[in-house]
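Sat 14:20. Reprocessing the chain from the morning session after the first attempt stalled halfway. Input below, unchanged.
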Amino acid sequence: MFSFVYKDIDFQHKLDEAGYSSEVFEKHIHPFDEIVYFIDGNVTYTVEAESHKLKPGDVIFIPAGMYHFATVDTTSKYERCVLKFPDSYIPEYIKDVRKHRSCFIGNEPKYLNVFNRLDKIKGSYNNDELYAICLCDTIRILVEIYHSST
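Finished this time. Tokens:
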């Protein structure tokens, strides 16, 4: 599984097996943006007052400063990709569009290719090269998420 934390990027492919949780899923807030790509499990995600039972391929884009948490059925596995990055990476037009959209983007299976590629290339590049790749992929995902909204 891909895990890359360097400078201001945190890009991880996480898998918690049934009966095991790598983290506590309590309500929290943070000063950076987060994209969660849901792969598998029995999870309901809440951002502020909006909750959704997730389906494979669902994307959640959580802006900085919004409380959120996952309600996880730990009797099944929980697989997701999580990308954390500063708000300054987001192009201004996306910030404007985002204000009028739900944090829950819906089913977007195409992003799994990005995360699968990152799983495969880990170890092939140094940290600065991986940082540049993750930065490009972050912006690519943001543009694709909001492409149909502009």
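The first strand starts at residue 3 and ends at 6.
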